[in-house]
Each structure stands twice: as structure tokens, then as C-alpha cells.
């Protein structure tokens, strides 16, 4: 993805950029559709709390249910950050990475929300249970923050889980342009992936539903690969991950 730029003629380069824009637009449409579908499912579940729990489904406070709920929220922010950087840079490598992340995580989010529907479980944890409580060891809220990613705001301002960006950080990303936007996006997404890997590893060891465990293991492999790529992309821009 990174490396020497193609020396093809201008017409060919323009055609590639046009194809990339069409590809991104198609992916964005798919991602947005999944996000809206997920939001509609959440609203429906909140309006009708009488849906019975499916036979053989995991318990509402299980690792399976907790991972599905929390990772759906975690993934939604990754998609949001990818859409933001798309409009802040013309760099093909960064835009391609953002497209891949948005497409992959929007699809995974749809699967997680779909399982909760099939299980007859709510999309939001009951009572005052903090995010990531299913991981054990007091990992919700600020505690989960320590497992992946640097967040100087100490878990406030919208930082619900490990690695998530704050509202202020998202607003800053939306104000930056060019190389500054690229570097900040790569740093934020590095933090985000570290938090996501910690959550997925916890599900791989704690979840009981085989298909969910396989998805979690796939997330670990995919996001660890992207962490290495983002480290290299930051180095090419004279920067490094935070923390």
C-alpha cells in the first residue's frame, strides 16, 4: 500500500483516481446502510422491550453479549473516523486504508447487531453496568482505557472504551488537512485498534459461541496486521504512534 508512487501517464492516473472514488463511494454507501440499519434495529429494540430471549442464546450479562454490544459501538467510531479522513486528505494510501477499515468494520458491526437480534438480547447493557465489564478485572470505563491506547482526557468526553477517541479528538481530526490529518488519523486509529485487539482477545478466550469466537480471532489478526501497516505509514510521515 505504501511505497513508490506509480509513474504512469496522467490519463491513467486520473482513471485510477476516478475508479478509487467510485469504489470508495460504493463502500461508503454500504457502510452507511449498515450503520443506519443498526441504528434502526437499536431503536426498534428499545421501543419493544418484550422480545423473548431465544432458546440456547447466551445470557444478557455473558461475554458473548457484552462483546457484541461493546464492539458494535467501538466499530461505529472507527467507521466515523474513516469517513472524516476521507474528506481531509487526497493521499491514496490513507484513503485506501480508511476505505478498508470502514468497509470491514461496518460489515462486522452488522453481524454483531444481527446476533443480538437473533438471541433476543438488548443492544444496551442493563442497569449501570459499565462498558467492557464482561472482560473482568474492572476493565470498564477508565480501567479499560489502560488496555489499549493513549487518552489524555482520562476516559471522559465520549471515551467509553479502550482506544476510543474523544469528542474533542474527532473534532480536531475534522479540522485538520493533508499530512496533519493523515498523521492524526493514523495515531487515533492505532489507539483504536489496540483497544479493539484487547477486546477481541478477551472474547476469544471468554466467549462461548463458536462463530463469535472465530470472528474475534479474525479481528485480532486483521487489526494487528493494520497496526504494523499504520506504524510504517506514520514513520514515512516522520511521526510515530502516541504513548
TrEMBL record:
InterPro entries: DUF305_CopM-like, Ferritin-like
Domain DUF305: 64-234
Protein name (record): DUF305 domain-containing protein
